[in-house]
Design goal:
The complex is a heterodimer of chains A (177) and B (357).
Chain A lengths: L6 H20 L2 H17 L1 H7 L2 H19 L8 H9 L6 H18 L3 H12 L4 H8 L3 H18 L14
Chain B lengths: L2 H11 L8 H5 L14 H8 L18 E2 L11 E3 L9 E7 L2 E6 L4 E4 L4 E2 L5 E7 L2 E6 L5 E5 L1 E7 L5 E6 L7 E6 L5 E7 L4 E3 L5 E3 L13 E5 L6 E5 L4 H4 L14 E3 L4 E8 L2 E9 L4 E7 L6 E8 L3 E7 L3 E7 L6 E8 L3 E4 L5
Parallel strand pairs in B: 2-5
Antiparallel strand pairs in B: 1-25, 3-4, 3-26, 4-5, 6-7, 7-8, 8-9, 10-11, 11-12, 12-13, 14-15, 15-16, 16-17, 18-19, 19-20, 20-21, 22-23, 23-24, 24-25
The chains are: A mainly alpha (177), B mainly beta (357).
Protein backbone atom coordinates (compact mmCIF):
# COMPACT_ATOMS: atom_id res chain seq x y z
CA UNK A 1 0.00 0.00 0.00
CA UNK A 2 3.01 2.26 0.33
CA UNK A 3 2.71 2.99 -3.33
CA UNK A 4 -0.70 4.50 -2.67
CA UNK A 5 0.08 6.17 0.62
CA UNK A 6 -2.12 9.19 1.04
CA UNK A 7 -4.44 8.24 -1.82
CA UNK A 8 -7.26 7.10 0.45
CA UNK A 9 -7.19 10.36 2.35
CA UNK A 10 -7.13 12.30 -0.86
CA UNK A 11 -10.14 10.47 -2.29
CA UNK A 12 -12.05 10.80 0.96
CA UNK A 13 -11.42 14.48 1.42
CA UNK A 14 -11.51 15.71 -2.16
CA UNK A 15 -13.89 13.13 -3.64
CA UNK A 16 -17.07 15.11 -2.94
CA UNK A 17 -15.74 18.28 -4.55
CA UNK A 18 -14.43 16.36 -7.54
CA UNK A 19 -17.78 14.60 -7.81
CA UNK A 20 -19.54 17.93 -8.14
CA UNK A 21 -17.16 19.01 -10.86
CA UNK A 22 -17.59 15.70 -12.68
CA UNK A 23 -21.35 16.08 -12.55
CA UNK A 24 -21.22 19.58 -13.99
CA UNK A 25 -18.88 18.42 -16.74
CA UNK A 26 -21.22 15.61 -17.77
CA UNK A 27 -24.72 16.43 -16.52
CA UNK A 28 -25.32 12.77 -15.83
CA UNK A 29 -24.74 10.70 -12.71
CA UNK A 30 -23.39 7.62 -14.41
CA UNK A 31 -21.17 9.53 -16.78
CA UNK A 32 -19.90 11.58 -13.86
CA UNK A 33 -19.04 8.43 -11.97
CA UNK A 34 -17.31 6.97 -15.02
CA UNK A 35 -15.42 10.17 -15.58
CA UNK A 36 -14.21 10.59 -12.03
CA UNK A 37 -13.30 6.95 -11.57
CA UNK A 38 -11.32 6.97 -14.80
CA UNK A 39 -9.51 10.10 -13.75
CA UNK A 40 -8.77 8.75 -10.29
CA UNK A 41 -7.60 5.43 -11.68
CA UNK A 42 -5.15 7.24 -13.93
CA UNK A 43 -4.06 9.36 -11.02
CA UNK A 44 -3.55 6.26 -8.86
CA UNK A 45 -1.34 4.72 -11.51
CA UNK A 46 1.09 7.61 -11.10
CA UNK A 47 0.19 8.53 -7.56
CA UNK A 48 3.63 8.97 -6.05
CA UNK A 49 4.81 11.23 -8.82
CA UNK A 50 1.59 13.22 -8.84
CA UNK A 51 1.53 13.56 -5.09
CA UNK A 52 5.11 14.75 -5.17
CA UNK A 53 4.02 17.41 -7.62
CA UNK A 54 1.85 18.88 -4.89
CA UNK A 55 -1.42 19.30 -6.75
CA UNK A 56 -3.18 15.96 -7.21
CA UNK A 57 -6.57 17.64 -7.31
CA UNK A 58 -5.48 19.77 -10.22
CA UNK A 59 -4.20 16.68 -11.96
CA UNK A 60 -7.50 14.83 -11.51
CA UNK A 61 -9.41 17.83 -12.74
CA UNK A 62 -7.21 18.08 -15.80
CA UNK A 63 -7.62 14.39 -16.63
CA UNK A 64 -11.38 14.72 -16.24
CA UNK A 65 -11.50 17.61 -18.67
CA UNK A 66 -9.37 15.80 -21.20
CA UNK A 67 -11.39 12.63 -20.83
CA UNK A 68 -14.66 14.49 -21.13
CA UNK A 69 -13.53 16.24 -24.27
CA UNK A 70 -12.35 12.94 -25.64
CA UNK A 71 -15.73 11.32 -25.01
CA UNK A 72 -17.44 14.13 -26.78
CA UNK A 73 -15.13 13.88 -29.76
CA UNK A 74 -15.54 10.17 -29.98
CA UNK A 75 -19.27 10.41 -29.51
CA UNK A 76 -19.24 7.38 -27.26
CA UNK A 77 -21.56 9.07 -24.91
CA UNK A 78 -24.07 11.33 -26.49
CA UNK A 79 -25.52 13.85 -24.18
CA UNK A 80 -28.93 15.19 -24.93
CA UNK A 81 -31.04 17.84 -23.36
CA UNK A 82 -33.23 15.08 -22.01
CA UNK A 83 -36.65 13.97 -23.12
CA UNK A 84 -37.50 13.49 -19.48
CA UNK A 85 -37.14 17.20 -18.96
CA UNK A 86 -39.30 17.95 -21.96
CA UNK A 87 -41.94 15.59 -20.69
CA UNK A 88 -42.00 17.35 -17.36
CA UNK A 89 -42.34 20.71 -18.99
CA UNK A 90 -45.13 19.46 -21.18
CA UNK A 91 -46.88 17.90 -18.22
CA UNK A 92 -47.59 21.27 -16.69
CA UNK A 93 -47.03 22.77 -13.30
CA UNK A 94 -46.51 20.80 -10.16
CA UNK A 95 -47.10 22.07 -6.64
CA UNK A 96 -44.25 23.80 -4.89
CA UNK A 97 -43.05 27.05 -3.50
CA UNK A 98 -42.03 29.93 -5.70
CA UNK A 99 -38.36 29.79 -4.66
CA UNK A 100 -38.15 26.09 -5.32
CA UNK A 101 -39.75 26.54 -8.69
CA UNK A 102 -37.41 29.33 -9.65
CA UNK A 103 -34.38 27.30 -8.66
CA UNK A 104 -35.70 24.30 -10.56
CA UNK A 105 -36.26 26.32 -13.70
CA UNK A 106 -32.79 27.78 -13.37
CA UNK A 107 -31.36 24.30 -13.14
CA UNK A 108 -33.32 23.15 -16.18
CA UNK A 109 -32.18 26.14 -18.18
CA UNK A 110 -28.60 25.64 -17.13
CA UNK A 111 -28.67 21.93 -17.79
CA UNK A 112 -30.00 22.50 -21.29
CA UNK A 113 -27.60 25.29 -22.03
CA UNK A 114 -24.60 23.32 -20.80
CA UNK A 115 -25.65 20.34 -22.88
CA UNK A 116 -25.49 22.51 -25.97
CA UNK A 117 -21.91 23.60 -25.33
CA UNK A 118 -18.87 21.83 -26.76
CA UNK A 119 -16.97 19.98 -24.07
CA UNK A 120 -14.18 22.49 -23.72
CA UNK A 121 -16.52 25.45 -23.56
CA UNK A 122 -18.48 23.61 -20.93
CA UNK A 123 -15.28 22.94 -19.03
CA UNK A 124 -14.22 26.56 -19.11
CA UNK A 125 -17.59 27.62 -17.68
CA UNK A 126 -17.31 25.07 -14.88
CA UNK A 127 -13.74 26.01 -14.04
CA UNK A 128 -14.22 29.77 -14.20
CA UNK A 129 -17.64 30.17 -12.64
CA UNK A 130 -18.03 27.09 -10.45
CA UNK A 131 -14.48 26.30 -9.41
CA UNK A 132 -13.77 30.04 -9.43
CA UNK A 133 -10.38 29.58 -11.02
CA UNK A 134 -8.49 32.45 -12.60
CA UNK A 135 -7.86 32.46 -16.32
CA UNK A 136 -4.29 31.32 -15.72
CA UNK A 137 -5.43 28.50 -13.43
CA UNK A 138 -8.08 27.50 -15.93
CA UNK A 139 -5.52 27.45 -18.72
CA UNK A 140 -3.32 25.21 -16.62
CA UNK A 141 -6.19 22.87 -15.84
CA UNK A 142 -7.15 22.64 -19.49
CA UNK A 143 -3.63 22.38 -20.82
CA UNK A 144 -4.17 25.39 -23.03
CA UNK A 145 -3.11 29.03 -23.23
CA UNK A 146 -4.71 31.94 -21.41
CA UNK A 147 -5.69 33.31 -24.78
CA UNK A 148 -7.55 30.13 -25.58
CA UNK A 149 -9.32 30.28 -22.23
CA UNK A 150 -10.39 33.85 -22.96
CA UNK A 151 -11.72 32.99 -26.38
CA UNK A 152 -13.45 29.84 -25.13
CA UNK A 153 -15.00 31.77 -22.26
CA UNK A 154 -16.20 34.48 -24.60
CA UNK A 155 -17.74 31.94 -26.95
CA UNK A 156 -19.29 29.93 -24.15
CA UNK A 157 -20.83 32.94 -22.48
CA UNK A 158 -22.16 34.13 -25.79
CA UNK A 159 -23.85 30.83 -26.34
CA UNK A 160 -25.16 30.68 -22.80
CA UNK A 161 -26.56 34.16 -23.19
CA UNK A 162 -28.46 33.04 -26.25
CA UNK A 163 -29.73 29.87 -24.63
CA UNK A 164 -30.38 31.03 -21.09
CA UNK A 165 -30.34 34.82 -20.95
CA UNK A 166 -31.61 34.93 -17.37
CA UNK A 167 -28.48 33.24 -16.11
CA UNK A 168 -26.34 36.05 -17.44
CA UNK A 169 -28.59 38.96 -16.61
CA UNK A 170 -25.99 40.22 -14.16
CA UNK A 171 -23.04 39.50 -16.43
CA UNK A 172 -20.33 42.14 -16.62
CA UNK A 173 -18.11 42.22 -19.66
CA UNK A 174 -14.84 42.48 -17.76
CA UNK A 175 -14.93 38.74 -17.30
CA UNK A 176 -13.49 38.12 -20.70
CA UNK A 177 -11.64 41.35 -21.22
CA UNK B 1 -18.61 38.51 -12.62
CA UNK B 2 -21.76 36.43 -12.94
CA UNK B 3 -23.06 35.52 -9.48
CA UNK B 4 -26.31 34.28 -10.94
CA UNK B 5 -24.52 31.83 -13.18
CA UNK B 6 -22.26 30.74 -10.33
CA UNK B 7 -25.27 30.27 -8.09
CA UNK B 8 -27.02 28.20 -10.75
CA UNK B 9 -23.90 26.06 -11.20
CA UNK B 10 -23.73 25.49 -7.46
CA UNK B 11 -27.41 24.56 -7.35
CA UNK B 12 -26.93 22.10 -10.18
CA UNK B 13 -23.82 20.65 -8.54
CA UNK B 14 -25.91 19.92 -5.45
CA UNK B 15 -27.56 17.17 -7.47
CA UNK B 16 -24.23 15.34 -7.68
CA UNK B 17 -23.68 12.17 -5.75
CA UNK B 18 -20.40 10.95 -4.34
CA UNK B 19 -18.72 9.10 -7.17
CA UNK B 20 -15.29 8.43 -5.72
CA UNK B 21 -14.47 5.32 -3.71
CA UNK B 22 -10.94 4.46 -2.88
CA UNK B 23 -11.44 0.71 -3.29
CA UNK B 24 -12.52 1.20 -6.85
CA UNK B 25 -9.63 3.47 -7.60
CA UNK B 26 -7.12 1.06 -6.17
CA UNK B 27 -8.33 -1.85 -8.27
CA UNK B 28 -5.65 -2.45 -10.85
CA UNK B 29 -8.00 -2.97 -13.75
CA UNK B 30 -10.19 -0.01 -13.01
CA UNK B 31 -12.72 -2.11 -11.12
CA UNK B 32 -15.44 -0.01 -9.77
CA UNK B 33 -18.06 -0.44 -7.20
CA UNK B 34 -21.50 -1.29 -8.37
CA UNK B 35 -22.92 1.55 -10.27
CA UNK B 36 -24.86 4.01 -8.27
CA UNK B 37 -28.47 3.96 -9.13
CA UNK B 38 -29.12 6.85 -11.35
CA UNK B 39 -31.31 9.37 -9.70
CA UNK B 40 -34.07 10.09 -12.07
CA UNK B 41 -33.60 13.72 -12.84
CA UNK B 42 -37.14 13.88 -14.04
CA UNK B 43 -38.53 12.85 -10.67
CA UNK B 44 -36.33 15.30 -8.80
CA UNK B 45 -37.31 18.12 -11.06
CA UNK B 46 -40.96 17.18 -10.99
CA UNK B 47 -40.98 17.47 -7.21
CA UNK B 48 -39.13 20.73 -7.26
CA UNK B 49 -41.00 22.44 -10.04
CA UNK B 50 -43.50 25.06 -9.03
CA UNK B 51 -46.69 26.27 -10.63
CA UNK B 52 -46.72 28.94 -13.20
CA UNK B 53 -43.00 29.18 -13.73
CA UNK B 54 -42.98 26.40 -16.27
CA UNK B 55 -44.93 28.51 -18.67
CA UNK B 56 -42.04 30.95 -18.79
CA UNK B 57 -39.87 28.41 -20.56
CA UNK B 58 -40.00 28.27 -24.34
CA UNK B 59 -41.90 25.35 -25.80
CA UNK B 60 -39.83 22.81 -27.66
CA UNK B 61 -40.66 21.89 -31.22
CA UNK B 62 -39.79 18.68 -33.06
CA UNK B 63 -36.28 18.82 -34.46
CA UNK B 64 -36.03 19.20 -38.22
CA UNK B 65 -35.40 16.14 -40.33
CA UNK B 66 -32.15 15.28 -42.10
CA UNK B 67 -31.74 16.78 -45.56
CA UNK B 68 -30.59 14.24 -48.12
CA UNK B 69 -28.25 15.45 -50.84
CA UNK B 70 -27.05 12.16 -52.26
CA UNK B 71 -28.78 8.91 -53.07
CA UNK B 72 -28.98 6.15 -51.93
CA UNK B 73 -29.59 7.37 -48.43
CA UNK B 74 -33.33 7.84 -48.06
CA UNK B 75 -35.32 10.83 -46.88
CA UNK B 76 -36.79 9.86 -43.52
CA UNK B 77 -40.46 9.98 -42.65
CA UNK B 78 -41.52 12.98 -40.62
CA UNK B 79 -43.10 10.88 -37.89
CA UNK B 80 -40.84 8.58 -35.95
CA UNK B 81 -42.19 5.23 -34.82
CA UNK B 82 -41.26 3.26 -31.76
CA UNK B 83 -38.78 0.55 -32.64
CA UNK B 84 -40.51 -2.82 -32.14
CA UNK B 85 -38.89 -4.75 -29.35
CA UNK B 86 -38.64 -7.88 -31.47
CA UNK B 87 -38.78 -8.94 -35.09
CA UNK B 88 -37.26 -7.65 -38.29
CA UNK B 89 -37.73 -4.05 -39.38
CA UNK B 90 -35.55 -4.13 -42.46
CA UNK B 91 -32.05 -3.08 -43.29
CA UNK B 92 -31.14 0.42 -42.16
CA UNK B 93 -29.49 3.24 -44.07
CA UNK B 94 -28.26 5.27 -41.12
CA UNK B 95 -28.64 5.87 -37.42
CA UNK B 96 -28.23 9.33 -35.98
CA UNK B 97 -28.40 11.24 -32.75
CA UNK B 98 -29.24 14.89 -32.33
CA UNK B 99 -30.31 16.98 -29.38
CA UNK B 100 -33.84 15.89 -30.26
CA UNK B 101 -33.29 12.18 -29.86
CA UNK B 102 -31.82 8.97 -31.27
CA UNK B 103 -33.14 7.60 -34.55
CA UNK B 104 -32.80 4.74 -36.96
CA UNK B 105 -33.77 5.22 -40.62
CA UNK B 106 -34.45 2.15 -42.71
CA UNK B 107 -33.84 1.76 -46.42
CA UNK B 108 -37.46 2.59 -47.16
CA UNK B 109 -37.33 5.79 -45.11
CA UNK B 110 -39.14 4.65 -41.99
CA UNK B 111 -37.79 6.40 -38.94
CA UNK B 112 -37.66 4.75 -35.52
CA UNK B 113 -36.94 6.17 -32.10
CA UNK B 114 -34.08 4.49 -30.29
CA UNK B 115 -33.75 4.41 -26.52
CA UNK B 116 -30.10 5.42 -26.81
CA UNK B 117 -27.72 6.25 -29.60
CA UNK B 118 -27.43 3.19 -31.79
CA UNK B 119 -24.31 1.82 -33.40
CA UNK B 120 -25.20 0.61 -36.88
CA UNK B 121 -23.02 -1.82 -38.79
CA UNK B 122 -21.62 -0.59 -42.12
CA UNK B 123 -23.92 -2.97 -44.03
CA UNK B 124 -27.00 -1.67 -42.22
CA UNK B 125 -27.95 -5.10 -40.93
CA UNK B 126 -26.88 -5.01 -37.30
CA UNK B 127 -27.79 -2.46 -34.69
CA UNK B 128 -26.13 -2.27 -31.29
CA UNK B 129 -27.85 -0.24 -28.59
CA UNK B 130 -28.10 -0.08 -24.85
CA UNK B 131 -31.28 -0.52 -22.90
CA UNK B 132 -29.66 -0.07 -19.49
CA UNK B 133 -26.12 0.43 -18.25
CA UNK B 134 -25.63 -3.34 -18.02
CA UNK B 135 -27.91 -4.40 -20.85
CA UNK B 136 -26.69 -4.05 -24.41
CA UNK B 137 -28.27 -5.70 -27.43
CA UNK B 138 -26.94 -6.38 -30.89
CA UNK B 139 -29.89 -6.98 -33.14
CA UNK B 140 -30.23 -8.27 -36.67
CA UNK B 141 -32.62 -5.82 -38.29
CA UNK B 142 -33.47 -8.34 -41.00
CA UNK B 143 -34.43 -11.27 -38.75
CA UNK B 144 -35.39 -12.22 -35.21
CA UNK B 145 -31.79 -12.72 -34.12
CA UNK B 146 -30.70 -10.72 -31.09
CA UNK B 147 -27.35 -11.12 -29.32
CA UNK B 148 -27.52 -9.83 -25.76
CA UNK B 149 -24.10 -8.76 -24.64
CA UNK B 150 -23.19 -10.00 -21.20
CA UNK B 151 -22.23 -7.02 -19.14
CA UNK B 152 -21.51 -5.00 -22.23
CA UNK B 153 -21.21 -1.35 -21.45
CA UNK B 154 -21.41 0.01 -24.93
CA UNK B 155 -20.40 -0.43 -28.53
CA UNK B 156 -17.28 1.21 -29.80
CA UNK B 157 -16.68 0.32 -33.42
CA UNK B 158 -17.81 -2.10 -36.12
CA UNK B 159 -15.39 -3.87 -38.38
CA UNK B 160 -15.62 -2.78 -42.00
CA UNK B 161 -17.16 -6.12 -42.97
CA UNK B 162 -19.86 -5.82 -40.26
CA UNK B 163 -18.87 -9.13 -38.71
CA UNK B 164 -17.25 -7.91 -35.50
CA UNK B 165 -18.40 -5.38 -32.96
CA UNK B 166 -15.92 -4.04 -30.46
CA UNK B 167 -17.42 -3.13 -27.10
CA UNK B 168 -16.29 -2.20 -23.65
CA UNK B 169 -16.59 -5.04 -21.18
CA UNK B 170 -18.72 -4.12 -18.20
CA UNK B 171 -18.25 -7.38 -16.32
CA UNK B 172 -16.73 -6.98 -12.88
CA UNK B 173 -13.83 -6.66 -12.41
CA UNK B 174 -13.02 -6.07 -16.04
CA UNK B 175 -14.75 -2.80 -16.69
CA UNK B 176 -13.07 -0.75 -19.34
CA UNK B 177 -11.65 -3.77 -21.11
CA UNK B 178 -12.42 -4.71 -24.66
CA UNK B 179 -15.13 -7.18 -25.54
CA UNK B 180 -15.48 -8.53 -29.07
CA UNK B 181 -18.73 -9.87 -30.45
CA UNK B 182 -18.94 -12.13 -33.49
CA UNK B 183 -22.28 -11.52 -35.21
CA UNK B 184 -22.08 -14.89 -36.98
CA UNK B 185 -22.78 -16.83 -33.79
CA UNK B 186 -23.00 -14.25 -31.02
CA UNK B 187 -19.74 -15.44 -29.48
CA UNK B 188 -18.22 -12.91 -27.12
CA UNK B 189 -14.62 -12.83 -26.14
CA UNK B 190 -13.06 -10.50 -23.63
CA UNK B 191 -9.59 -9.21 -24.25
CA UNK B 192 -6.84 -9.32 -21.69
CA UNK B 193 -5.76 -5.83 -22.53
CA UNK B 194 -7.28 -2.70 -21.06
CA UNK B 195 -8.90 -0.09 -23.23
CA UNK B 196 -6.35 1.63 -25.38
CA UNK B 197 -6.33 5.17 -26.60
CA UNK B 198 -7.35 4.52 -30.16
CA UNK B 199 -9.38 1.48 -30.86
CA UNK B 200 -10.81 -0.40 -33.79
CA UNK B 201 -11.55 -3.94 -34.85
CA UNK B 202 -10.27 -5.31 -38.13
CA UNK B 203 -12.08 -7.78 -40.43
CA UNK B 204 -9.61 -10.38 -39.16
CA UNK B 205 -11.15 -9.96 -35.72
CA UNK B 206 -7.98 -8.39 -34.36
CA UNK B 207 -8.27 -5.34 -32.14
CA UNK B 208 -6.21 -2.36 -33.22
CA UNK B 209 -5.23 -0.06 -30.41
CA UNK B 210 -2.63 2.25 -28.96
CA UNK B 211 -1.37 1.07 -25.61
CA UNK B 212 0.21 4.12 -24.06
CA UNK B 213 -2.48 5.91 -22.05
CA UNK B 214 -0.30 8.91 -21.39
CA UNK B 215 0.91 9.47 -24.88
CA UNK B 216 1.24 13.19 -25.08
CA UNK B 217 4.47 13.53 -26.97
CA UNK B 218 3.28 15.46 -29.95
CA UNK B 219 5.23 14.61 -33.04
CA UNK B 220 6.26 11.17 -31.85
CA UNK B 221 5.76 8.39 -34.33
CA UNK B 222 2.67 6.36 -33.50
CA UNK B 223 2.88 2.77 -32.37
CA UNK B 224 -0.22 0.70 -32.96
CA UNK B 225 -0.80 -2.83 -31.74
CA UNK B 226 -2.80 -5.57 -33.42
CA UNK B 227 -4.17 -7.89 -30.79
CA UNK B 228 -5.94 -11.18 -31.42
CA UNK B 229 -8.31 -11.94 -28.51
CA UNK B 230 -8.53 -15.58 -29.59
CA UNK B 231 -4.83 -16.32 -29.29
CA UNK B 232 -3.52 -13.41 -27.27
CA UNK B 233 -1.00 -12.69 -30.00
CA UNK B 234 0.15 -9.10 -30.26
CA UNK B 235 1.88 -7.45 -33.16
CA UNK B 236 3.33 -3.98 -32.83
CA UNK B 237 3.08 -1.72 -35.85
CA UNK B 238 5.42 1.26 -35.73
CA UNK B 239 4.37 3.85 -38.29
CA UNK B 240 6.44 6.72 -39.58
CA UNK B 241 4.91 10.17 -39.56
CA UNK B 242 7.25 12.52 -41.46
CA UNK B 243 7.25 16.13 -40.36
CA UNK B 244 6.58 17.37 -43.87
CA UNK B 245 3.29 15.47 -43.92
CA UNK B 246 2.29 16.60 -40.47
CA UNK B 247 2.64 20.24 -41.59
CA UNK B 248 3.37 21.34 -38.08
CA UNK B 249 0.49 19.33 -36.69
CA UNK B 250 0.40 16.35 -34.42
CA UNK B 251 -1.21 12.92 -34.47
CA UNK B 252 -2.41 13.37 -30.92
CA UNK B 253 -5.80 15.02 -30.65
CA UNK B 254 -5.51 18.54 -29.23
CA UNK B 255 -5.18 18.36 -25.47
CA UNK B 256 -6.09 14.69 -25.60
CA UNK B 257 -4.32 11.48 -24.84
CA UNK B 258 -5.37 9.52 -27.87
CA UNK B 259 -4.99 9.08 -31.58
CA UNK B 260 -7.69 8.94 -34.20
CA UNK B 261 -7.34 5.59 -35.96
CA UNK B 262 -9.85 4.50 -38.58
CA UNK B 263 -9.40 1.19 -40.44
CA UNK B 264 -10.17 1.32 -44.12
CA UNK B 265 -10.52 -1.08 -47.04
CA UNK B 266 -8.09 -4.00 -47.26
CA UNK B 267 -5.31 -3.39 -44.77
CA UNK B 268 -5.38 0.39 -44.77
CA UNK B 269 -5.92 2.69 -41.84
CA UNK B 270 -6.29 6.42 -41.40
CA UNK B 271 -4.63 8.45 -38.68
CA UNK B 272 -5.90 11.94 -37.93
CA UNK B 273 -3.59 14.95 -38.06
CA UNK B 274 -4.48 17.87 -35.81
CA UNK B 275 -3.53 21.39 -35.07
CA UNK B 276 -4.94 23.53 -32.29
CA UNK B 277 -8.07 24.15 -34.33
CA UNK B 278 -8.90 20.51 -34.95
CA UNK B 279 -8.56 17.95 -37.71
CA UNK B 280 -6.46 19.16 -40.65
CA UNK B 281 -5.68 15.98 -42.52
CA UNK B 282 -5.64 12.22 -42.59
CA UNK B 283 -2.61 10.02 -43.12
CA UNK B 284 -3.39 6.73 -44.86
CA UNK B 285 -1.18 3.75 -44.09
CA UNK B 286 -0.98 0.20 -45.26
CA UNK B 287 -0.80 -1.73 -42.01
CA UNK B 288 0.73 -4.77 -43.69
CA UNK B 289 3.92 -3.15 -44.94
CA UNK B 290 3.60 0.00 -42.76
CA UNK B 291 3.85 2.12 -45.86
CA UNK B 292 2.54 5.67 -45.68
CA UNK B 293 0.30 5.87 -48.72
CA UNK B 294 -1.11 9.39 -48.75
CA UNK B 295 -2.14 12.46 -46.85
CA UNK B 296 -5.75 13.53 -47.39
CA UNK B 297 -6.44 17.18 -46.72
CA UNK B 298 -9.38 18.33 -44.64
CA UNK B 299 -10.68 21.72 -45.77
CA UNK B 300 -10.08 24.59 -43.32
CA UNK B 301 -13.81 25.16 -43.02
CA UNK B 302 -15.30 26.64 -39.88
CA UNK B 303 -16.74 23.92 -37.67
CA UNK B 304 -15.50 20.69 -36.21
CA UNK B 305 -14.42 17.87 -38.48
CA UNK B 306 -14.65 14.30 -37.33
CA UNK B 307 -13.77 11.20 -39.32
CA UNK B 308 -16.40 8.52 -38.78
CA UNK B 309 -15.74 5.72 -41.29
CA UNK B 310 -13.77 4.64 -44.32
CA UNK B 311 -15.92 2.65 -46.71
CA UNK B 312 -14.62 0.80 -49.75
CA UNK B 313 -17.39 2.16 -51.96
CA UNK B 314 -18.04 5.63 -50.59
CA UNK B 315 -14.62 6.70 -49.42
CA UNK B 316 -13.85 8.51 -46.21
CA UNK B 317 -16.90 9.59 -44.25
CA UNK B 318 -16.50 12.76 -42.22
CA UNK B 319 -18.85 15.02 -40.36
CA UNK B 320 -18.53 18.78 -40.18
CA UNK B 321 -20.57 20.14 -37.36
CA UNK B 322 -21.39 23.36 -35.62
CA UNK B 323 -24.31 24.12 -33.37
CA UNK B 324 -26.82 24.54 -36.17
CA UNK B 325 -26.09 21.64 -38.50
CA UNK B 326 -23.97 18.61 -39.15
CA UNK B 327 -22.93 17.88 -42.72
CA UNK B 328 -22.06 14.29 -43.55
CA UNK B 329 -19.30 14.58 -46.13
CA UNK B 330 -17.83 11.92 -48.40
CA UNK B 331 -14.17 12.34 -49.35
CA UNK B 332 -13.00 10.53 -52.45
CA UNK B 333 -9.49 9.42 -51.43
CA UNK B 334 -8.35 9.12 -55.04
CA UNK B 335 -9.57 12.43 -56.47
CA UNK B 336 -9.55 14.38 -53.22
CA UNK B 337 -13.09 15.59 -53.92
CA UNK B 338 -15.64 16.31 -51.21
CA UNK B 339 -19.37 15.75 -51.51
CA UNK B 340 -22.07 16.36 -48.92
CA UNK B 341 -24.29 13.30 -48.62
CA UNK B 342 -26.78 14.57 -46.08
CA UNK B 343 -27.23 17.22 -43.45
CA UNK B 344 -28.46 16.59 -39.93
CA UNK B 345 -30.08 19.18 -37.71
CA UNK B 346 -27.88 20.65 -34.99
CA UNK B 347 -24.88 18.97 -33.47
CA UNK B 348 -25.30 15.35 -34.42
CA UNK B 349 -23.57 12.04 -34.75
CA UNK B 350 -24.27 9.43 -37.41
CA UNK B 351 -23.52 5.88 -38.49
CA UNK B 352 -23.84 5.92 -42.25
CA UNK B 353 -24.04 2.60 -44.04
CA UNK B 354 -22.30 1.89 -47.31
CA UNK B 355 -24.13 2.76 -50.51
CA UNK B 356 -23.81 -0.85 -51.73
CA UNK B 357 -25.29 -2.35 -48.57
Amino acid sequence: MERYEGLSEFVLTRGPALSRTAYLLTGDHQLAEDLLQQALAKTAAHWRRIQAGGNPEGYVRRVMINERTSWWRRRRYTEVAGPATDEILAAGPAPGTGDEAEAAVRRISLRRALAALPARQRAVIVLRFFEDLTEAQTADAMGSSVGTVKSQTHAALGRLRALAPDLLADFHTEVTS
Amino acid sequence: MTPRLSKALNDLADEAGSYATVDAVLAETGRRRRRRTVIAAAAVLAIALGGGVIAALPKTSPPPLPQIATAPWPIPEAVAQTLPTTGPVGRAAYAYTTLGGNYLVTDDGRRFNLPNSGLLSPDGRWLGYGLAPDRYLVRDLTSDTVWPVSGGMGGLEWSADSRWLLLTDGTEPRQKWYLRLDTRDGAQRTSDVPLGFADAVLPSGEILYTADPFMRSAGADPLLTRYDPATGAKTEIPLAAPDDLLNGGTLVEPNEQRLTVMPGPASTALLGVYDAGGLTGLLEYDLEDRHLMARHEVPPTAGEWLVTAYHPTDGIILTLCDHTRTDVVLLDPIRGQYQTALTLPGKATINLTTSDR
